[in-house]
Design goal:
Two copies of one chain form a homodimer. By secondary structure, chain A is α+β, with helices and mostly antiparallel strands. Chain A has one domain: Mth169, Chain: A, CATH 3.30.1280.10. Helix content of chain A is 35%, strand content 38%. Chain A has two helices and three strands, in the order βαβαβ. The first copy, chain A, has helices at residues 16-27, 50-65; strands spanning 2-9, 32-45, 71-78. Chain A has a three-stranded antiparallel sheet. Chains A and B meet through β1, α1, β2 and α2 of A and β1, α1, β2 and α2 of B.
């Protein structure tokens, strides 16, 4: 089973990478009012049961993939 | 208008960050057969027209946000 985890800096948390991207986009002439940069993690799981897979990915996020103090995450399970 | 850009290492391109994540997840006892790590870019655009916004984001990707030699990207436009 495949899963996608989207990790983003929380609202209000400084995002220097996003600021750098916005600055560069504006220099190139693009009109952007906001940019935030996060991480995208594609996982291939051996678990086949969706509920089991989601519970596992939830634990992966809180134990390793995201820092809950400064990041939020979203889990998308893909149909096998 | 908001857009999300998902940038991933292309198939066959080395992904040391993904390898490190897989290694760590296995050490923590999770069963994962594959992991890839990419970037997630949230954009707030001043353009209101979806076709115009998509064309702009497409140009941002090829000019700055992704390296087309080693990365693929996916653009998701969010309804205003």
């Amino acid at each position: 089973m495949k899963a996608v985890v989207m990790v983003r800096p929380k609202e209000g948390i400084l995002d220097p990478q996003g600021d750098a991207v916005r600055h560069s986009l504006r220099k190139l002439g693009f009109e952007v009012s906001g940019t935030r940069v996060g991480r995208l993690i594609d996982l291939e799981l051996t678990a086949d049961d969706p509920a089991d897979a989601e519970a596992q990915v939830e634990r992966m996020c809180s134990e390793l993939l995201a820092n809950p103090l400064i990041e939020s995450y979203e889990i998308l399970l893909e149909d096998p």
